[in-house]
Description:
Elements: E1 4-10, H1 14-25, E2 32-39, H2 45-51, E3 57-61, H3 66-76, E4 81-84, E5 90-91, H4 95-105, E6 109-119, E7 125-129, H5 136-141, E8 152-154, H6 155-161, H7 172-181, E9 185-196
Parallel strand pairs: 1-2, 1-4, 2-3, 6-9
Antiparallel strand pairs: 4-8, 5-9, 6-7, 6-8
Helix pairs in contact: 1-2
Amino acid sequence: APLVSIVIPAYNHGRYLAEAVNSVLAQDHSPLELIVLDDGSTDDTPAVLARLEGNFIRERHANMGQARTLQKGWAIAKGNILGYLSADDILAPGAVSAAVAALQAAPDAVATYCDYHLLDPQSRPVRQVKAPEYDYRAMFVDVVCPPGPGAFFRRDAYEATGPWNADLRQMPDYDFWLRLGLRGHFVHIEQQLAGFR
């Protein structure tokens, strides 16, 4: 089975960080690498991170923003399949296994994304979100960005595409998906496999 590496960039989400980390550690896919990077948080994130149990990489650095923190995490990562999770989001059980299976079934695909639940501040599902079907033209022309929480992509495609652009203050993820989409198509997994706050 391929090694999957997930990066959690954490900035002032101490309230939800344990839930995010535990949702990754509870995944049934193996091998799995989790990298949690505290981006200079000023809340209780460092204390929460210190208390968390489990075998994962954890580091703290001076604040440099989400894009640069993800760049650092993916540079550390050893996996052939990469992903990220916001510190206030969660993965549902089986999310990683489903992504790996989808990529293995579609060798020409460069990424997967799933449907997800919208969560309230108490982590209760508010509604189900069905992601749109992948259509590069719609993503480019109509700014329809299908990937949300629970997206994964191949490392070789990431390295060919380049990381998130830290110069973009808004939507660096959208820019990344546009560039990644030039490398191949994305597979839509029609299951609620993540939670988005």
